[in-house]
Structures are given as structure tokens and as C-alpha cells.
User: Fold Nucleoside hydrolase from Bittarella massiliensis.
Amino acid sequence: MQTARKKIIIDTDTASDDAVALVMALREPTLQVLAITTVAGNVPLELATKNACLSVTYAGGARPPIYPGADRPLCRPLRCAEGIHGKDGMGDQSCFRAPEVEAERTHAVDAILRLVREGEGDIEIVTLGPLTNLALAILQEPETMKRVPRITAMGGAAFYGNTSPTAEFNFWVDAEAADIVCRSGIPLTIVTGEAGLEAGVLGPEKLELLEAASERGWFCVTCNDTMRQNSIRSRGYPQIGLPDPIALAALTRPELITGSFDAHVRVETQGSDLTYGMMVCDRRPPEYGAVSKHEGPRQPFQAKVVYEMDPEGFFQYLYELVK
Ligand code: BDR
Ligand code: CA
Assistant:
């Protein structure tokens, strides 16, 4: 008997590692991707949307609608990551063919709310970028969004950040949005930057295997060329990091998770540049007893925080989907 596919919406600031996650999701037989929604983050919104269209083209599988969303964070100016992903987010290559799909005109937030409203409480969301679209949907229709059974979010730093000592890029770009999502009551799986630090890193051998696997394997490696070239310059050999594909794998292959803890998670929005966007995990177990009189009421754990995945298992999974 065939089991029902998991219905998901993917929200992405599509640049090079998001592109790999999109290719994987669209090849994954256990998933039904209902929509891809885009958000400003790694690159401005227009590029993120174009890159999502390109990724769908190269994935060579299902072609879900693509809805452009927020073009800037809720309260702060947009800060991008071109140094990691290239000016266009896809390694600044001239060899890719033109996207064969176009984005819809409907705003991502309207599309998310409609799909969740019309669904049967079974539509999960995977976020690969800043949480601006999700926060806007929650602010607009909190009750509708309570129908989402789980959000799997690539974001947050369990121990140390990649953009400041304490903050990971997606939470740092729009900490206000990340905190709204954490306070929404929707169950969360937070796949931190650290989860990809070992498992999501592809060195020379893995890059060669992936590149030779298929045209889409070549696409996955080539769009990450800015990272690859940065590594050749700094380390002397090619290497890329894939945090977003790691988040997708945490959803579809939870047996690859080797390190996680449960917590009540919030995100710092008031801090200085040392702590803005920092993920704060209250891990005090129920038996800890009463909390201090100086804090609000005790909050239940709403998040599973993933900080480690199986490197070989992840690469095998990626290779199988891409070949
Ligand atoms: C995250 O930030 C972006 O650069 C990546 O696409 C990923 O979503 C890693 O911190
Ligand atoms: Ca991303």
C-alpha cells in the first residue's frame, strides 16, 4: 500500500544551498510540494524568485507554483549574503539555461494563508530563509496558522553563530520575524547552523561525485561556485556547506538526526550587535520546579532543536535524490 505523501510549502530566500534543497524536495517521492514561496534574505526578493524558478527548472520533477513574498525584514533594512552565494545568489554563472517556469502574481503570504485555510490541518512548512513571510501570515491570521502541524526551520545557533558570535544568518536578518514564529504556538523543528557544520559540508571527493551524477548534480555544485572558490582561496581545496538541504533531510529522514534537544525557544530582538538574532533556549526540565519571580509564567517546550546530523547518511541521501 502506498502511504500518502507529506504536503509541504517551502519558504526560501533562494540562493545556492536553497537551490539544492529545492532540487531534493522536488525529487523526494514522500513529499508533495504544494508551493514555493520566496523571501528576501541571501539576495533581494527578485533574485530569490528568479533562482527558485531556475532551481525548479533544473530539478526536472514537479513544478509547483512559486509565489514572491516579503522584499525586506519586518523592522530592519535588508542585509544579504552575496559574499557566500555570489551577487546573483547562484555563483554568478553564465552557463545556466533560462528558467522554464514563471512566478505567480499572488503574494506569498496570501498563498500560504489560502493553502493552509483550504487544507485539512496537514500542511507543514519548511523555511530556508528569514521568517518574514511566516511572521506576516501569523500576524494576519493567527488562527489559520495554528492549523499548521509543524514548521521545520533552518535557522538559529545552538552554540555559536555564523553571522555574529551568537546569531545564525536567517534569524539575524529578521529576528523580529523569527521571534513571532517562536511565539505562535506552532510546533517547531529548528535545524541550527551547527547541524550542517559537519554533515552539510562537501569536500573535493563528494563534490566530484555529485557533479558527475547527473545534470542536476552538476547544477547543484555549479550554483555553489562562489563558496567553492572561496574555499579554494582560503583552504587550498574546494568545499561547500549546505545548511538548507540538511534542514530538508531533518524533515524527511529524521533517523539521520544524531543530536537534538527540546526547549522553549525565543529570539533576541532587543540586543546589541553581539546578541541581536540570538536564539535563546529555555531547557529547564519540568522537574526544575518554579521559575524565578522575575520572569513570566513557565512556557512549554515548543521546539526540537537539531544540532547534529549523520554526514555519510546525509550525503548518500542527497546523492540518491540528485542522480
Ligand atoms: C542560512 O543562511 C543562508 O546563507 C543559507 O541559505 C542558509 O539558509 C545558513 O545560515
Ligand atoms: Ca537559505
About this structure: The CA atoms of residues 54 and 97 lie 8 Å apart. The chain has one domain: 6-322.
